[in-house]
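Lab meeting tomorrow. Look over both lines:
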Amino acid sequence: MIKKILVIGGTGMLGFPVAKQLKDDGYTSDILTTNPDKAAKKFGDGFNYISGDVKSESELRKTLKDYDGAHINLNSNSYKDLQEIEVKGCRNIVNVLKGSEVKKITLISCLGVSEANTHIPFIKAKMEMEHEVQNSGVSYTIFNCTQFMESIPLYIRNGKAMILGKQNHKIHWLAAEDYARMVSRSFELKASDFKNYSVIGPEEFTMEEVFKQYIEKKDADLKITKVSLGMLGFIASITFNSKLKYLVDLMRYFDTTPERFDPKNFPEVLGQAKTSLNEWLSKGNS
């Protein structure tokens, strides 16, 4: 029986909801972070904040020995971090878990992970991470998620809701709280072992449709602005801004690639996502 779970990357936008849900469901939920003091100031003293760096396998070996479950939520905003933190970090975690008491690993990934899309560095990295977990010999559940509602405020700056590119594809926007409940249940249900699940929200909207609801519900003065990815790419190249280049490439992928999923891979055993965009906005999320 799994009782004590380490959330690796638990101070992020999608990691902390998982840590909180695990705690609410009765697990001992600890958070691995490179800065425990900063994390404690942000989230309070309701968690154990464990100091550690996924880039150091030796540090992880000291940390992971005390857990019987682990959730991997790694994120990056540059190509360097994509390799150093996500791919190599996941590899280090799995190498340590192979010889530990951990009985179950959960991993957040994304929709669209396939051999056909590995020419895209972001997707290739996610596939490499999935393979590390799948080949670990440890029970796992991988969540291939669509875009999250929690990302919406990131596109709002100085009274403008920015659409980067055209972004005309409809997306089944997902609330982090729904996803977090699925992750928590996966540690309990054996039926979810050794599975990849496609995780989407209950409604589909283009980004412009999302912003129109945001304006109606939250900020009537907000203006929707479309920003050229070509222009942003040019700015990134002349300023040598690696984070902007990574963002442009990521948004170009979303701009040109429709949301794809197989209904056969829905996590019905873990419960479907039910939070609507209107409900999410009504809860004060912004």
About this structure: The beta strands are 4-8, 28-33, 48-51, 69-72, 104-110, 139-145, 156-157, 160-164, 195-199, 223-227. The chain has a mean pLDDT of 94.
